[in-house]
Design a protein that fits this description.
The complex is a heterotrimer of chains A (about 230), B (about 270) and C (about 70). Chain A is built from seven helices and eight strands; from the N terminus they run βββαβααβααββαβα. Chain A is of the alpha+beta class. In chain A, the strands form two sheets. Chain A has a four-stranded antiparallel sheet with strand order 2-3-1-4, sandwiched between helices. In chain A, strands 6-7-5-8 form a four-stranded antiparallel sheet, covered by helices on one side. The radius of gyration of chain A is 21 Å and the shape is elongated. By secondary structure, chain B is of the alpha+beta class. In chain B, strands 2-3-1-4 form a four-stranded antiparallel sheet, sandwiched between helices. A four-stranded antiparallel sheet of chain B has the order 6-7-5-8. Chain C has helices at about 15-25, 55-70; strands at about 35-40, 45-50. Chain C has a two-stranded antiparallel ribbon. In chain C, a hairpin with a 2-residue loop joins strand 1 (about 35-40) and strand 2 (about 45-50). The radius of gyration of chain C is 21 Å and the shape is rod-shaped. Chain C starts with 13 loop residues before the first helix and ends with a helix. Classes of the chains: A alpha+beta (about 230), B alpha+beta (about 270), C alpha+beta (about 70). Chains A and C meet through helix 1, strand 4, helix 2, strand 5 and helix 6 of A and helix 1, strand 1 and strand 2 of C.
């Protein structure tokens, strides 16, 4: 079995210099113009421990330093090397297109805390009448997973001009933080960081954290539409 | 072997027993135990023993016939008696083991019967059409505008982001409808449960199941339940939600029974 | 060895960096669904991939047995 880290554009002579999970050597398995970073592994399940997660991350970063890469989700394991190649061949066009979209682009993770509970969309439904007004249901759907509108607009206003794409995360009941991912062209990284710092200065009411650069995890996550998957399933 | 259909309070069922049991030609009888009566059939071990039964249950036609037979016996009696229906294929190796189990659980069974007395089970299933719901959510004016795309690559991500947002909105709307519906119905019931949604292979509909609820409702409260379902249907039909009310059922979901002894794996 | 420094604002928030890593590695990144075919001694075995892996080691064992018995046939 093989643990997979990421899919990249084929480049000859790539030397990674970082070990894989469990200290195993990482190889680049090629199929035509693509390659996948893989290391031998014993079982189907990998413990999501901090060292393993960082190992996953470091292998992807090592590849990314030398070629465009699509990071895979943690714990992607295949049966054997032919399965690796089939992965690449089966989704060749989509993977190539996706690599084109993330080439030389990195992700930044924004976290805002101290934002309060949002627009104050109270449970306005009349408890007597059954079912919500249609407007209420729409508004609820729109707001309960989203950032407070004004805050999102402010953040996007400040940072969108310096990023290629932005992606607010749905609000999480477990965490009070508001999170967003930004896709930034590598040459624009310093400028982006400056703008984040500037936004933080303007908004002293918030705690703004920005980590990165990360491989573009959030921008490849749902890249394959269901439609395509159904075709691939034969 | 003894096949157990249900447990009722008190002895006197007698002449009201259904003619045919779990298999054609097999009679239905009672076994008294304390203040309770078990509704049973004596069945051959060649069919209902663990090994042969396991094989037979793999044949869907046979299983379906048996399940219908089981339900016929239970439903036939439930109209006139407070009874605890047992799960399909609850079996005992002999009369002694049946009585032993009844004696051991005598008090719990009495309480279980008291809990369901005067009430019947009703099922409410909620379905929705994701595409229709998404379209309905989209028609609100002033929807969040897509962020301005600066380059071809950015347009791809903007589209993806929009899709994700719309999917998320559908989930929120479904969750709200499901929670509100279950809450309102449960308020009218002595007890309520929400089972796992069934697969499309089971319910055979093209849309998605959002709620598979069961409600134990007193006979006096049934009209209010029906009114509530009607009101929910009216409120949510425009957004593509469909409510299906079924019942009355024998209170399968409210017996709170876990008996030991022989039960074949499902 | 980290060759791209992971800056944080405010600095020194290792927990935030780990949290951001968990968000990404566990919940984002590409997930590839669909079938993958492997060939064992000339026998094509088709399985459904979940994260392109078999659902359990039981399935893997069954597949190996099937492959072995197929090979044993004349």
């Amino acid at each position: 079995m093989f643990y997979l880290y990421g899919i990249a554009r084929w480049k000859p002579g790539l030397a990674l210099g970082v070990p894989g999970i469990g200290g195993m050597a990482v190889r680049m398995e090629r199929w035509r113009g693509l390659m996948v970073a893989a290391s031998p592994f014993e079982t189907w399940e990998v413990e999501a421990s901090t060292p393993n997660l960082w190992c996953h991350e470091h292998v992807i970063e090592a590849v990314m330093a030398q070629s465009a890469v699509i990071p895979l989700r943690f714990c992607t394991v295949v049966a054997d090397l032919p399965a690796c190649r089939q992965l690449l061949s089966r989704h060749y066009r989509q993977l190539s297109a996706l690599l084109g979209r993330v080439n030389d682009r990195v992700e930044f993770a924004l976290r805002l805390s101290g934002a309060g509970s949002g627009d104050g969309l109270a449970a306005a439904a009349d408890p007597e009448s059954v079912g919500p007004g249609t407007a209420y249901l729409r508004a609820l759907a729109r707001h309960s997973s989203a950032w407070p509108e004004a805050l999102l607009a402010a953040l996007r206003g400040a940072l969108d001009p310096w990023a290629l794409a932005s992606m607010p995360w749905p609000r999480d009941t477990k965490s009070a933080d508001l999170r967003a991912s930004f896709l930034v062209e590598r040459p624009g990284v310093d400028a982006f960081r400056r703008e984040v710092a500037g936004f933080g200065d303007q908004r002293r009411d918030l705690t703004v954290s920005c980590t990165g650069p990360w491989p573009p995890y959030s921008f490849v996550a749902d890249a394959f539409s269901q439609q395509t998957d159904r075709k691939a399933k034969r | 072997m003894f096949y157990l259909y249900a447990i009722v309070a008190g002895p006197g069922i007698g002449a009201e027993l259904p003619e045919e049991g779990i298999l054609p030609g097999i009679a239905v009888g009672t076994v008294a135990c304390g203040g309770l009566a078990c509704i049973v059939s004596e069945v051959p071990v060649e069919i209902f023993g663990e090994a042969p039964l396991r094989l037979l249950l793999e044949q869907s036609a046979w299983t379906k016939e048996r399940a219908l037979a089981h339900e016929r016996v239970v439903a036939g009696l439930a109209a006139a008696h407070t009874l605890l229906p047992l799960k399909f294929c609850t079996l005992f190796s002999d009369r002694d083991s049946l009585i032993r189990v009844m004696e051991r659980h005598q008090e719990a069974l009495g309480q279980a019967l008291a809990h369901i007395r005067g009430a019947r089970e009703w099922g409410v299933k909620l379905f929705y059409d994701p595409a229709r719901l998404r379209g309905w959510l989209d028609t609100e004016p002033g929807a969040e505008p897509a962020p301005a795309a600066k380059a071809a690559g950015a347009a791809f991500f903007a589209r993806k982001q929009n899709e994700l947002r719309r999917q998320q909105e559908v989930l929120v709307a479904v969750r709200h409808c499901t929670e509100e519906s279950h809450r309102r119905l449960a308020d009218l019931a002595r007890e309520a449960t929400a089972a796992a949604s069934q697969s499309p292979a089971l319910h055979g509909r093209k849309d998605e199941m959002a709620l598979n609820g069961a409600y134990l409702v007193t006979e006096g409260g049934e009209e209010a339940l029906r009114d509530c379902v009607r009101a929910l249907m009216e409120a949510y039909a425009p957004s593509g939600f469909d409510f299906i009310l079924t019942g009355p059922w024998a209170p399968y979901n409210f017996t709170r029974l876990h008996l030991g002894e022989l039960t074949p794996p499902h | 060895m980290e060759n791209s420094p992971r800056r944080t604002e405010p600095p020194g928030s290792g927990d935030i960096v780990l949290a951001d890593l968990l968000d990404r590695a566990l919940h984002k990144g590409l997930v590839i669904w669909g079938e993958a075919t492997i060939s064992v001694a000339g026998v094509d075995l088709v399985y459904l991939g979940l994260k392109v892996l078999l659902a359990s080691t039981d399935t893997a064992d069954r597949m190996r047995k099937a492959a072995n018995s197929a090979v044993a046939k004349p």
